[in-house]
Amino acid sequence: MQSHNDFATMKKLFILITIIIQCAVSNAQKISVFSPAKIWTDNKGLPINAHGGGVLFHEGMYYWYGEHKLEGKSEAQFADGGIHCYASKDLMNWKDKGIVLGVDFKDTTNDLSYGCILERPKVVFNQKNREFVAFFKLYLKGVGYEKSYVGVAVAKHPAGPFRYHHKFLGGGSTKGSGDFSMFKDDDGIVYHLAVRKPDKTFVIGRLDSDYYFPEGDYRAVEGIQVHTEAPAVIKRKGTYHLLGSGSSGWKPNIARYYTTDNILGKWTYHGNPCSGYNTVDSLGIEKTYGGQSSYIIPVQGVVDGYIAMFDRWKPELPITGRYIWLPIDFTEGKMAITWQDTWNMDFFHRKASTKPSFVDQQTPVNAFPLAQQDSIVQSPKSNKWKLVFSDEFNDNAIDTLKWNVENTSRKRTDILLLADEQQVEEKEGNIFIYYRKLMTADTTYLAGRFNSKGKFAPTYGFIETRMHIVKPNGHQMAFWMMPEGNGMKPPQGVDGTANDGCEIDIVEGTKANAYSSGLHWDGYGKPAHKSNGALVKAPGIHDQEYHVYGFEWSPTFLKFYLDGKLVREMTDPKLIPHVAHFIYFSGSCFGENNWLDGDIRKNEFIQKGGIDKSYLDYVRVFESTTGN
Ligand code: GAL
Questions:
Q1: Quick one: what percent of the chain has pLDDT higher than 70?
Q2: Is the CB of 197 under 6 A from ligand 1?
Q3: Cα(52) to centroid of ligand 1, in Å?
Q4: What's the pLDDT at 144?
Q5: CA distance 178 to 161
Q6: Mean per-residue pLDDT for 599-607?
Q7: Residues 109-148: pLDDT tens digits?
Q8: Pairwise CA distance, residues 180 & 52, whole Å
Q9: Rounded CA gap, 522 and 499, in Å?
Q10: pLDDT band for position 302 (cuts 50, 70, 90)
Q11: CA 531 to centroid of chain Cα atoms
Q12: C-alpha distances in angstroms, 131 versus 56, 163, 210?
């Protein structure tokens, strides 16, 4: 009895202690501002140990990889312990994922045996192999900084564990290369931009499709000074931006900044992009606030949200090294970095938040839906329609308050289809959806997709777009809507009607000079699934640049328009949806199929590396002021 009571008391005590610890941890965790150069703690309340790092975004999560510095060791005493990883959804509160690749303290013959120098880890996702590839500077034990390999480790999960795979000498030199950036371009090609040893010429080479080894020769980069180190590269609106430093070991120097429109071409020097003063350490921009660049993080879902990462090295006790993360301001088109004592994501939203509504200020004030007169009297004066949402696509950046750009993959019978951010681009007054072949994998294709899910979903109204749809040849363009709720998800969604939500296909560009429109309801599974589609003849539709596609949705009818002409009408009460639907624009590719014209594997233009496109001039949504 006694011992049971003791056990029960101890158990209670244990639970209490656990709760107290959890509270303490969650208190420690709540960080709401970046505080550059100050101690930054993880979810356990410990200083983050990820130096010279980089950040990868994957499936809703950011992963920060950096050098794990060993306790009590100076750089001279070999402080490198491997790659340490942290995960975060907001880039401020980081959860420790531990050492995902460690040095080997036992086997002295291992490339990663303790005493080696393992620096500046960067991780890139290889879509073809669905593999995470980590790269790092690797100076073998006993060799010193003379000769450096690029170490390569791989993992199936972003939080590891990583398995050491091999090493190579980069830069086309027998001494290898030093500081580097592994820049993944829109077409999946990874470029290795690095400092060649021993002459410190800045060079560029490309990796093979596995991202394991350099392929072809390296070339000296025109326009980038010798002794440029710590390169961090991003691509914004077709221009590559490189932030780097000079070469002075662990001691800070002046940052340098270059741009180019051709990554293999000539770069232009823009001097030091920094301004301001590090008030924590009393250091100015001649020392880059005491920091050295390591990476630039594109913030997901934020227009022009980029964060520059710098390391404030502490070679005497590197584990105490700090991080300086600062927002990059691109309002003038060029990178500008200003010291901030503290800051948060509002920095990037300041401009966007002044937007009053979903209506694009650039939509003409008297815009009204294009529909033939016998439907409902349409005129600017009729007041029938009120504009509630529009995007004229004139901003050169996707408005993430309105749209989600998809990052998804679909397995088709004989191809793999990927959608990612690079296949959707807003420029020159349009939003483009690109179709292309992944040049590094034979049966993989890319096509852009974006939608307004969770952001804007009307019930009834007039939804209209002016667009050019790709002429189908194994690929197609669709303008459609999907229910925000469960109307297409069994069992709730299966009720014998489209009233609770359905797939509304306004345009499915499956045939040359024609397209189909119609509905799918009650889910996609057999036997519940039902559909009602019809082909709309549209001669010359792909030849002329734009056509206006409209969908008028009232509580009693659905009408589909092409250039203002009514092409379909539905009045069956079972087929009228009465719930919110978001808007979808998607590109798609197919191999062998009996649905659309062509087979992407036989589309010569795409096979030869061509990039096909569909594009939209605008999307406008009007609400009825009369209720029908
Ligand atoms: C820096 C380099 C660091 C580290 C250091 C050693 O220039 O960026 O990664 O290698 O030199 O002195």
A1: 92
A2: no
A3: 9
A4: 84
A5: 25
A6: 97
A7: 999 999 999 999 999 999 999 999 999 999 999 988 899 9
A8: 11
A9: 10
A10: confident
A11: 34
A12: 13, 11, 9
What is the Å distance from ligand 1's center to 323 Cα?
15
pLDDT computed for residue 353 by the predictor: 45
Q: Which tens digits make up the pLDDT trace of 85-113?
A: 999 999 999 999 999 999 999 999 999 99
Longest pairwise C-alpha distance within the chain: 90
Binding site membership of 464 for ligand 1 (Cβ less than 6 Å): no
Taking the centre of ligand 1 as the mean of its atom positions, its distance from the CA of residue 307, in whole angstroms, is: 21
Ligand 1 mean position to 193 CA, how many Å? Answer: 16
506 Cβ closer than 6 Å to some ligand 1 atom: no
The residues near 249 (Cβ < 8 Å, ≥ 6 apart) are: none
Amino acid letter for position 128: K
The secondary structure of 400-437 as a DSSP string is TTT-EE--EEEE-SS-EEEE-GGGEEEETTEEEEEEEE
pLDDT above 80 (res 600) = yes
- The answer, yes or no, to whether any atom of ligand 1 lies below 6 A from the CB of 122, is no
SS3 146: helix
Q: Does ligand 1 have an atom closer than 6 angstroms to the CB of 67?
A: no
Q: 556-587: per-residue pLDDT in tens?
A: 899 999 999 999 999 999 999 988 899 999 99
Instruction: Tell me the C-alpha distance between 124 and 132, whole Å.
Output: 6
What does the mean pLDDT of the chain come to?
A: 91
Instruction: Give the Å distance between the CA of 250 and the centre of ligand 1.
Output: 6
> Ligand 1 in contact with 249 (CB < 6 A)?
yes
Q: How close is the Cα of 330 to the center of ligand 1, in Å?
A: 28
- 8 A C-beta contact, residue 589 and residue 417: yes
Residue 168 and residue 194 in contact, taking contact as beta carbons nearer than 8 Å: no
Between CA 329 and CA 335, with CA 332 as vertex, the angle to 5 degrees is: 45
Task: Answer whether 298's CB lies under 8 Å from 327's CB.
Answer: no
pLDDT at 486 over 60: yes
Work out which ligand 1 atom sits closest to the CA atom of 119: 9
**Collapsing DSSP states into helix, strand and coil, what is residue 622?**
strand
**How far from chain centre, in Å, is Cα 553?**
34
The string of pLDDT tens digits covering residues 111-122 is 999 999 999 999
Distance CA 509, CA 312 (A): 54
Closest Cα to atom 2, ligand 1: which residue? 249
pTM (two decimals) = 0.58
Strand-pair partners of 487: none
Of how many residues is the chain composed? 628
> pLDDT per residue over 179-233, tens digit each?
999 999 988 999 999 999 999 999 999 999 999 999 999 999 999 999 999 999 9
CA–centroid distance, residue 625 to ligand 1 (Å): 65
User: 311 CB less than 6 Å from ligand 1?
Assistant: no
Average pLDDT over residues 74-89: 97
250 C-beta closer than 6 A to ligand 1: yes
Stretch (H or E) spanning 536: strand 530-537
3-class DSSP state of 549: strand
9 φ/ψ angles, rounded to the nearest 5 degrees: -65, -45
In short, whether 120's Cβ falls inside 6 Å of ligand 1 is yes
Residue 365 banded pLDDT, cuts 50, 70, 90: confident
Order of strands, sheet of 214-220, starting from the edge strand that comes earlier in the sequence: 177-184, 190-196, 202-207, 214-220
Asked whether the beta carbons of 561 and 371 are under 8 A apart, the reply is yes
Q: Are 205 and 172 in contact (CB under 8 A)?
A: yes
pLDDT score recorded for residue 172: 97
